[in-house]
Amino acid sequence: METTSGAHDLVIARHEESLDWVLDVPEVYRVHIYDKGASPVAPAVRDRAESYVALRNAGREADTYLTHLLEYGPGTGEFTVFTQADPFEHSPDFLELLALHADWTEVQSLSWCWKAPIGFPPAALLTPERSLVPGVRVRPELFSLNTFHPLEWVGAGPDWIGGGYRELHRLPAGINISAHFLDMCELPDIAELAQQHLVGRSSIGAIFGVRNHLIEKVPERALVRLRQAAIGAPVHGYFCERLWMHIFGESFLFPLRLPGAS
Predict the structure, then answer these.
(1) Distance of CA 164 to the CA centre of its chain
(2) Is residue 1 one of the residues assigned to a domain?
(3) Is residue 29 part of a domain?
(4) Which residues are 8's β-sheet partners?
């Protein structure tokens, strides 16, 4: 295996997807492949990787990301990027975005949609002016911290996720389920902030970048609890996907009590 000396880390959660696109990843990235599938990975791709680890198939990509953070740490570079092994369904300009790291925010969404061909989200929301970065497609999803529903469109998935979580934990309607999950995973300060707000921001498909100094701020015990949650109940993996950006420092939106309100 050849070792690259990049300034950033790219963590890939693979099942059975082709990874030929990894050969086009800018050399500034160290590539880490975590494989939960049975099909082989091309030798050239393995050679490009800094590390290649086979994992049992559990916990969706959340388990993969947390395995990397618990065993490898935040890395010595500037950013760590997390992605599924086929990023292009959710982020058609993923490779172009990797090259624009100098313009990223502290916690950078890198996705555009869930499945555009079936209208999730609707085409009216996938227009050039909606992109955060001119010339490439980047659109974070706004969602309710109480229900998990997106704010701009209607889909059946959030009903299953939010309803399933309430049923699993026997929570009544009206409870901030995002705050509940964060508190359960030993992130009380972030849970308190979530409790004081109504809206979150997510990167669809759990494709995002984080400055490593922010990763260092997440307590190891919280990473362990998040990993236990991800492999413990299927719905928890979706909560990780929705809340990653906030776990690493992204601000919540729309406070319950506006400044100056009595």
Answers:
(1) 20
(2) no
(3) yes
(4) 29
Distances (CA, A) of 167 to 161, 190, 249: 10, 23, 28
Containing 13, the helix (H) or strand (E) segment is: strand 8-14
Instruction: Provide the domain limits for residue 181.
Output: 8-254
DSSP state, residue 102: G
Distance of alpha carbon 12 from alpha carbon 85, whole angstroms: 6
Please give the model's pTM, rounded to 2 decimal places. 0.93
Token reading at 226? 């998040």
- Distance, CA of 144 to CA of 109 (rounded, Å): 18
pLDDT band (50, 70, 90) for residue 3:
very low
User: In the chain, what are the helix, strand and coil shares in percent, each to the nearest 5?
Assistant: 40, 20, 40
Q: How far is CA 99 from CA 29, 103, 113, 212, in A?
A: 10, 9, 20, 18
pLDDT at 2 (0 to 100): 37
Write the single-letter amino acid at 166.
Answer: R
The answer to whether residues 23 and 3 touch, using CB atoms and an 8 Å cutoff, is no
Q: What is the pLDDT of residues 134-189, one digit of tens each?
A: 899 999 999 999 999 999 998 767 788 999 999 999 999 999 999 999 999 999 99
Q: How many domains does the chain have?
A: 1
Query: Kind and range of the H or E element at 140?
Result: none
User: pLDDT band at 262, cuts 50/70/90?
Assistant: low
The tokens for 71 are: 């065993």
Identify the bridge partners of residue 31 per DSSP, sorted by sequence position. 10, 49
| Strands 29-35, 253-255: pairing kind | unpaired
Q: Report the distance separating Cα 237 and Cα 59, nearest Å.
A: 6
pLDDT at 15 over 50: yes
